[in-house]
Design goal:
homodimer, alpha/beta, 9-stranded mixed β-sheet, 12 helices
Chain lengths: ~400, ~400
Amino acid sequence: MTSSALETLEMISGGVTAPQGFGAAGVSAGIKADNGLDLALLVSDRPASAAAVFTINRAQAAPVVVSRDHLSRSGGVARAIVVNSGCANACTGDAGLQVAREMATETARLVGCPVEQVLVASTGVIGVALNIDKIRRGLPVALDALAGDQGSLAARAIMTTDPFPKEAAARVTLGGRGVADIVIGGMAKGSGMIEPMMATMLGFVTTDAAVSQPLLDRALREAVNDTFNAITVDGECSTNDCVMLLANGASGANVDEASYDAFAHALGAVCLQLALGIVRGGEGATKLVTVTVTGAASAADARRAAKAIANSPLVKTAIHGGDPNWGRLIAVAGRAGVEFELSRAEVMIGSIVLFKDGRPYDEAAPEAAMYLESKDIAVSVNLGAGRASSTVWTCDLSAEYVRINADYRT
Amino acid sequence: MTSSALETLEMISGGVTAPQGFGAAGVSAGIKADNGLDLALLVSDRPASAAAVFTINRAQAAPVVVSRDHLSRSGGVARAIVVNSGCANACTGDAGLQVAREMATETARLVGCPVEQVLVASTGVIGVALNIDKIRRGLPVALDALAGDQGSLAARAIMTTDPFPKEAAARVTLGGRGVADIVIGGMAKGSGMIEPMMATMLGFVTTDAAVSQPLLDRALREAVNDTFNAITVDGECSTNDCVMLLANGASGANVDEASYDAFAHALGAVCLQLALGIVRGGEGATKLVTVTVTGAASAADARRAAKAIANSPLVKTAIHGGDPNWGRLIAVAGRAGVEFELSRAEVMIGSIVLFKDGRPYDEAAPEAAMYLESKDIAVSVNLGAGRASSTVWTCDLSAEYVRINADYRT
């Protein structure tokens, strides 16, 4: 990464419509019972390079199947993304597949583009039929509302149990030949069923940079790995997870190998802000928890141990209760199936050492308990087995998580 | 398994002291803050064949290290087991190891046997020093109280957050040469931090059959695999898990290859009753959930998918809330990393089909919701990928689990 790139990165407002040439809308199509916003439309004024990562869940929802197909048939070009909330259109059989295809067809007709240039996403309850008539009635309303300042309404229209919308945007000056400003914007949703594997909950990122499809694909995969794929709320990977990235070139600036690092850095910053938003808004979450594992024998071990800690109900409840229970961190590291050397292991809560050299430092427990009262918590475990490290983000586990998920459909 | 063996299996009362030649005691040594029972002693009146399985957590507690060492040095012979609750003696370094050794030494001196014939176990908070003086003062009291009808007090003395003690015993007539009755008894504890891997929380099983050490070891591993290793409360594997089995031969009956099946069947029945007791008494549990996976490509896939379902917070909260949310079962099966074919998959809650042939059967949802009001729930998922199957047991996830674990040390 060039230092000039770092110097010119600026986080801005505007979400998916912050870059030039993108319009968005969020309307109510009557899919949600409460008549809330439930249909989002995102349109580029010209064909854009498109890249996406999808859930690795083997029960892939209909919109995932259709979007994957369209991306392949269009050779990585898209004009529009249509998203509904309130219904996941997952496990809905051939009928559901037909509905997802019709969503794309109708959008393509209204936007005036080939159907394979439309990507589709859905989120909500699994196994319920999505009413295509409601989508058909909602789409023209969304097209009418489409505007370059409506990113935040689109971000609201993709929410389910999310307590707040997730948006991010960054302006960055590309290095390389010539100096040009480009903008990257994004929105995401996700609150429960969150442990993306190779993909995540719904995330949509736009940029007015011109980026070739192979480079765009590489940038998205790298960014997702360290952001959306490094978060977990409850260890669940959904049937509908996807992150889509459109680059329409409206800024006139081109991303090439010389300016790639600056672009990738900014893309990572946008994705991280969206991903951390998902964790902060995790079901029942009261704290954002940064889990860092160091001293691992390999990067895979580090990620695996960090994920095991981040998904441990005993660790998450202890943090919820403000209990500096480092023993649970050791116990999880020990069962994570990774190289682990107890005599060289170390546990810190914040910067407070609680276990080191094979023995507890319980005199530090009161200070650690005070630290745990804050909303942003860092815990770290050194596995004592090597030099690799990994950071993941999660939230605490509260009784509210249980209430939300015991009552989700009733 | 011979049919005559099945006919003569009878579940009885008495726990670990149901078999002949075993005495037990449960006393208060002042380790628990509330002066509850916290020291259990189990003694055979003669040297017994001994087998044990231990946690695969890499952070092994001191008593695990010591018991493993003693079992190896004695060649699989034991006279006594000493167990304390209120303190796990885990992550306590060399000092903790010394305490575990002294627990054994003192017990051996009082019982009058070689130190390596004493096995040690501890359960409670991790990372707190175990006070050896309290153990030293408690042990003679326990020895005085030792009796052939005190199994239930020992079962109480090993409890931590357990809402009730777990005991089981069976009388069985061995086949083979001659016909003789033998008795198998057991006790167990465990309520949170429960997903045993190759071992479990604390379980202690006794029998008055004479069983060679290799045969005893085989019988224990087989029984544990289908019982203690097939349960999960919260997916956590503790630093202290172990199951120990003593066979003292006091009945005069010998288990050989001919009578092995009858013995193994009875041992399995005792272990299953103890294991299900752990699940029923799981932290915050209100329901026992039997998860059966069929149609798997392999036994390993079947177990893995069943465990993923049994550990899914979204499945566990849905069952807690009485929501027949079969979509969550499909979603977990799809992300479990096993062969899965959605078009051939099937989900049942009780005997009610909710998903089959790629489509929902939502007309059955009200009946399934009524079924979910009971305390004993069965769910099953056919992966549509083969013929292997597996059953595991878990409990629901309630707000009470969070409350217990957020406040555990305070």
